[in-house]
Amino acid sequence: MDQQTLDTLEFDVLKGLLVENVQSPLGAKMARTLSPSSDPQQIRLNLARTSECVELLREDSLDLRDLKDPTEILNRLPVENVNLEPMQILEATTMIAVAMDVRNQLGRFRQRFPALWEVAARIPDLRRLYSALRGRILPSGEVDTDASPELRRIRREINELRTRIHHSLEGIMRRAEANVIQDEIITIRNGRFVIPVRSDFRGHIPGVMHGMSSSGQTVFVEPLSTIEQNNDLVNLQELEEIEITRILFNLTSLLREERENFKQLVDALAEIDFIAAKARLSRQFNCCAPEINESGILSVANARHPLLEKNLKAQGREVVPISLELDSNSPVMVISGPNAGGKTVVLKTVGLLALMAQSGLHVPAERASFPVFKHILADIGDHQSIAANLSTFSAHIKNVSEMAEMVEPPALVLIDEVGTGTDPDEGAALAVSIVDYFKRKGAMLLVSTHYNRLKMYAYNTDGVVNASVEFDEKTLQPTYRLITGIAGTSSGIEIARRLGVTSEITDQAFQLIRQSDADSNQYLKRLKAELDAQRDLTAAMEEERAALAEKFARLELDFIKKDRQRSVQFEAELKRIVENFTLESEKFLKQIQDHRAAVRLQKEAEKRASELRRKAREAIKRQEADLPAATHKIEEQAIDDWGQALGADFRVGDPVRVTSIGQEGVIESIRGDEFDVRVGAVRFKASRNDLTPLRAERYSPKEGKRTAPKILPKGIDVVLKEEPNVPSELNVIGCTVDEATSRADKFLDDAYLSNLSTVRIVHGSGMGILRKALTRFLSDHPHVASFHPAPPSEGGGGATVVELKT
Known about the structure:
Layout (H helix, E strand, L loop, with lengths): L2 H6 L2 H9 L5 H8 L7 H20 L11 H6 L9 H22 L6 H7 L6 H7 L15 H27 L11 E3 L2 E7 L8 E6 L5 E6 L3 H31 L1 H26 L6 E2 L5 E6 L2 H9 L7 E5 L5 E5 L6 H16 L8 E4 L4 E5 L12 H15 L4 E5 L8 H17 L3 E5 L3 H9 L3 E9 L4 E8 L7 H7 L4 H10 L2 H76 L4 H28 L4 H20 L8 E4 L4 E9 L2 E6 L2 E6 L3 E3 L5 E2 L4 E2 L22 E3 L5 H17 L4 E5 L6 H11 L4 E6 L9 E6 L2
Parallel strand pairs: 5-9, 8-12, 8-13, 10-11, 11-12, 22-23
Antiparallel strand pairs: 1-2, 2-4, 3-4, 6-7, 6-9, 13-14, 15-16, 15-19, 16-17, 17-18, 20-21, 23-25, 24-25
Helix pairs in contact: 2-3, 3-11, 4-11, 6-11, 9-10, 15-16, 17-18, 19-20, 19-21, 20-21, 20-22, 22-23
């Protein structure tokens, strides 16, 4: 992006707000180098990370406040034989600990916040290095005594020797004559333990003098008896320094070996702190995540300039939000209205929010959508330059000229007071030409103006929209509201009058306005009044629409409630029908002597029951009529299915009652409508109308009741129709959940009736939706004994193996 545009739109000031929300020098460095991107994929990724971090901060926190700037550490590590200072090793240890905590914290949210986790996943596993560094340096920066066995031994000897020296010196002071010792305090001079002796008695304590007090009254004497002990102490202290240096060298070497991983950890922590700062800024200004579109739409609803909002809040005032929309059909907006009415604020708000969106920042608005601009160019403010010998007009024109050479779609161009600073007629003509040039170049353009000629150009040109900042004619005050679709008047004379200019001047100014200009201003005022009336009418209609919507919502709620009640009643009635069907089937099956026939018929009955349940579910979905009609239809279907399941159609071997003789027998042969029926040892010829089936329970719609089936005579063999071969595998990949469960239900019925013991349902892995739905379905299925995922060689998690009941 053009640096002048970034300065004009105060992007650096915005970055200052971002820096205020970081917690470490790492994040601050990234925030200061923030710049807009023109890569749509990267912009969407950055916005996704900001959005995820906003959600994370609502329920958790990211604490990175203990981190220091690791630049010096990273600069020293590549240099061989150079040790890090103890505090630097401590800072590196703290940074590794914080990084591991952050990685673990975000790891718990990896499913919900994948874009944020992608950054945290870059943190390498440095637990072994952390274990080696932890506890070696104390918070004060001193090397811990337990950093090595040798250091522990040396410091133990130092402490013991100090104790012996103290005892020796205390004994000397106790044995000394009165007034010889100045203060009974053992002190250190030149790294050696000494005692304070009055200067006029210094010869009473034989030893080495190590200095005199500032007053000259005290000399510090190392007695001869402790000289050797002090020498040993100095030697031990030198050994201590050597061991500390060795320890620091070893710890530095460990860090040096992991230098690249440590740098990667630092970079990841910096980005996480930077993302968290963007999320905090979003929450601070109640921002929304802008949509990045490829259709060339710039749309903001109730947008606010963040810097202006912060300043006004400090004064106890509120910013007035703006809403506007531009697209490929209407890419140009001409904003007019009085001075100090907010025209410049509109331009700066749109420009800054576009920069924020392309920087991965949320924008302060209720809703926002932006295309990705290759260039954002702005000419706003006074560019007068005395040093360059440029007037305001010359500076503006020079800037516009550079923008015209630079512009390349997709681009956003913002020009404040286009063409101003010269002769009004020439300026107006130049303003129209500038706007038309950028429009032809394919740029999206927002300009502010006072020129009526440019306003009329906007009215008469396709793709150009007029807008105005509102001015209250009663109070003579701007409202700062942006009104789209109508041009505004400058109201300069009214403002001059409000600011106290004498009426003698303002009255004459009114008289000097050309009649055409007066007519234009009057026309614009009339349009404004009509727009206000239209807005009031729209508000009234909106209230009426809301009332109607509420009424229809209540009616819809009542309908849903009644529909649910009907569904409950329907389900209850369906359950009763199925239970009656199952009960009657079981009664009949108990009367069959042949065990195999009973098992086959039981399976057939269960299959019909499953089909009945499926048909009932489909009937519920199609249910449009009231409950009694739907229930009657399902009940008739259930009786029909039951009759088919138990043999309503006559076949050879069926038990029947011959109505004319009142006896029960078995059909031996069928020739058209003539039947040979054996009753005991006697054969009878009978017609179809003379036979009553004994397997199906008779149902009379008129009577609305059933009659119990008759018991079959002993010795009857039941011949069942052979089922076709049933495959042992069902593939439901690509099906919806309803289709998959319906197909699986029928498949299990067929497999169960074909005496299959094991089948396989292939549903694929994908997002696991089909697998979860089939798991719930199989858990309650009457034919299923157990089920489990297929082994890896047979599909793994993409298939389920089902064991059927025997």
